User: Which sequence fits this backbone?
């Protein structure tokens, strides 16, 4: 979710910069009567004059600075690219079969079974499970929507001792660290007569 917001913000900012820059160049290129403070005054103007382009060439700090800035830009672009391919959800879980081999369990299948198991608990109206972490050490994020009469302590105890215990037993994992978020169903207050 955070990566999606960051991507949208980055694309929006890049689009805005390109739109403003393109509009400025287009306005100057079409000689639309730009203000006096505008960097380009007409179609015959250039972006950088020859003197501006060659201004710092002789200075010793110029090329190392240009290379360092370009290196940082490339590094940030690579980090962003790698982040695009990271999955928010775990695709598979390795299950020890006991014979020295490992079976592969699909992550969404385990999520679905765990959701169904949690949804059957007393006081739970709806459950959403997200499997994260590594293939050999998965973690879960569980969102519980509780009925108005449910006690959060009892719902968490049932989640820990029933649903998550079933998941640990079926996958053969010693532990499945879990973050649980609880919310109550919106309801109207009962009237006492």
Assistant:
């Amino acid at each position: 979710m955070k990566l999606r917001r960051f991507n949208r913000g980055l694309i929006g900012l890049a689009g805005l910069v390109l739109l403003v820059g393109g509009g400025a160049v287009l306005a100057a290129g079409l000689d639309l009567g730009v203000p006096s403070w505008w960097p380009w005054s007409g179609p015959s103007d250039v972006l950088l004059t020859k003197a501006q382009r060659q201004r710092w060439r002789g200075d010793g700090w110029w090329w190392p600075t240009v290379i360092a800035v370009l290196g940082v830009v490339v590094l940030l672009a690579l980090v962003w690219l790698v982040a695009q391919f990271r999955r928010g959800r775990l695709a598979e879980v390795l299950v020890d079969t006991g014979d020295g081999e490992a079976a592969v369990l699909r992550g969404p299948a385990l999520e679905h079974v765990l959701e169904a198991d949690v949804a059957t608990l007393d006081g739970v109206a709806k459950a959403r499970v997200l499997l994260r972490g590594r293939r050999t050490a998965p973690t879960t994020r569980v969102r519980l929507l509780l009925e108005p009469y449910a006690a959060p302590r009892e719902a968490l105890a049932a989640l820990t001792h029933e649903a998550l215990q079933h998941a640990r037993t079926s996958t053969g994992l010693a532990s499945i660290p879990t973050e649980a978020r609880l919310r109550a169903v919106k309801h109207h207050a009962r009237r006492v007569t």
Q: What stands out?
A: The chain has five helices and five strands. Residues 2-29 form the longest helix (28 residues). The mean pLDDT is 82.
